[in-house]
Amino acid sequence: MDLFVVLVICLSFLIFLFLWNQRHAKGKLPPGPTPLPIVGNILQINTKNVSKSISKLAEDYGPVFTLYFGMKPTVVLHGYEAVKQVLIDQGDKFSGRGSLPVADHINQGLGIVFSNGEIWKQTRRFSLMVLRNMGMGKRTIEHRIQEEALCLVEALKKTNGSPCDPTFLLSYAPCNVICSIIFRNRFEYSDENFLALARSLDENATIFSTPWIEEKHNKQSEFTVDNLITTLWDVLTAGIETTSITLRYGLLLLLKHPEVTAKVQEEINRVVGRSRSPCMQDRSCMPYTDAVIHEIQRYIDLLPNNVPHAAAQDIKFREYLIPKGTTILTSLTSVLHDGKEFPNPEQFDPGHFLDKCGNFKKSDYFMAFSAGKRVCVGEGLARMELFLLLVSILQHFTLKPLVDPKNIDTTPLLKGSGSIPHFYEVCFIPV
């Protein structure tokens, strides 16, 4: 048995050396911690807080370094300058989508989010065209969000000020907005099919079909039925989960900071009042509320390390040579929590997005939706939803926590590929 173990270890080490030499023969990758055979650097990463581990490694290896997840290298970019250089300045060269085993198994390289090459280009172009034709970014979609916000308000009123878990209630509104775009129809919150969809967004299931296109017999076309279904699922999951989690996390932060909530509600009363629904034109007159929403997104750091990119070609990057197909990890945490741009970045402070006169202040470091060629397709829609839904909630309700705000934990429950808040309950008290 001992001899067998030794042979396995030796064989594993030889395989590792072979792959290591093969990789380095193709390019000069950035330095990084020495990987172990088979497992690479996985044991040096805290899987419950990957971004924290990456920040610590960046202190030793600088803004560009290499990690091995298993036997495959991943080039990590840390800090605004390095991330900007990859996502924006050289966005075309790094526009590939990196490997993510779970997504690779489910999506099979189809859809918008995890596709590459011509499939990605054609699918993204087509999806943007269809979404715009169906109202995304126009007044028509704003009206749909306003109508859905009223439905959400009515659903919250039915809680009668009793403690409730807002998780599903906050997902219904963005879910219905996406459904109204795709299906041209919204659903009642009591509809069993709608509830099933809301509960199973994290499952990869083909639950619908659509007559968006009539497919031609074109061997060059990427518009297959499978690709269409995967694309629809991408739109649903990305368009619903990110917004609902941001709203849920945002309310938790507002419970923690009642003084911030009070300032937002004062601004809502002054600009919007109570006799009409908020609209997007109001945002320019509500700098504090705008700053709060941006600070919520900055603070929660929803996608700490972005979705993996990949080198679309052999690239000379700084003094390194990165082979085509190499996975690229961009630390959005290092940008959103940059101490020079956002003093005391671990503190929730809307002042990060306000100038000395109280006007809203933009920041190039705000990359909550990523940036460059792979920026979130639904960024405009998400921004609109977050403003209209959050303002509508605070227009009609006072948020009452069940514990002392000082005892509310706003650190993420998990911070791996995404940031998830702790479970909490809240009372929506009508005003």
Note down, in words, how this protein is organized:
There is one protein chain. The chain has helices spanning 2-26, 50-61, 80-89, 101-107, 117-133, 139-157, 167-182, 192-199, 225-256, 258-271, 287-300, 333-336, 379-396; strands at residues 64-69, 72-78, 96-97, 309-310, 315-317, 320-322, 327-331, 397-401, 414-415, 419-420, 426-430. With 431 residues, it is α+β, with helices and mostly antiparallel strands. Heme binds at residue 376. Its main location: endoplasmic reticulum. One of its GO terms (cellular component) is endoplasmic reticulum membrane. It is a peripheral membrane protein.
List the main descriptive attributes of the protein structure presented here:
single chain; 431 residues; alpha+beta; Cytochrome p450; two-stranded antiparallel sheet; 13 helices; 11 strands; globular; oxidoreductase; microsome; heme; membrane; oxidoreductase activity, acting on paired donors, with incorporation or reduction of molecular oxygen, reduced flavin or flavoprotein as one donor, and incorporation of one atom of oxygen
